[in-house]
Design goal:
By secondary structure, the chain is of the alpha+beta class. The chain is built from five helices and three strands, in the order αααββαβα. The protein has a three-stranded mixed β-sheet with strand order 1-2-3.
């Protein structure tokens, strides 16, 4: 197998976040203020935020999922995330996208979320 094929096959399903951007931690903290109404844990620790991509121009793109496609707040949650992130000083724009590939699973939760929900 050549190296290019190997990179494509081994590529993560979830695009990595730009964790080295100065705004990244502020965006994460803003995402932690958003909760799934049915679960007493914020959406970041639940693992619902797949990618936080901050461009050099401070444009934020967030790719997220839901615990289930039929979630009653499916249409509203991206707006809640956008509303939480937009006021951050320095953020130029925010776009929140939704995906179900890969599907969310309990293994995506942080240890804090597992503890809070009694899974640890």
């Amino acid at each position: 197998m050549n190296q290019q094929q190997d990179m494509i096959e081994g590529a993560p399903l979830i695009k990595p976040s730009t964790t080295d951007h100065p705004l990244y931690d502020s965006v994460v903290e803003a995402c932690r203020t958003v909760y799934d109404p049915e679960i007493p844990v914020n959406i970041f620790d639940l693992g619902l935020i797949y990618t936080i991509d901050v461009s050099a121009e401070n444009e934020v793109e967030i790719l997220m999922t839901l615990t289930a496609p039929g979630c009653p707040v499916a249409g509203e949650m991206p707006g809640w995330v956008q509303d939480a992130v937009e006021p951050i000083a320095g953020v130029k724009s925010v776009v929140v996208g939704m995906t179900f590939d890969p599907p969310w699973g309990m293994d995506m939760m942080s240890d804090e979320a597992r503890l809070e929900l009694g899974f640890m």
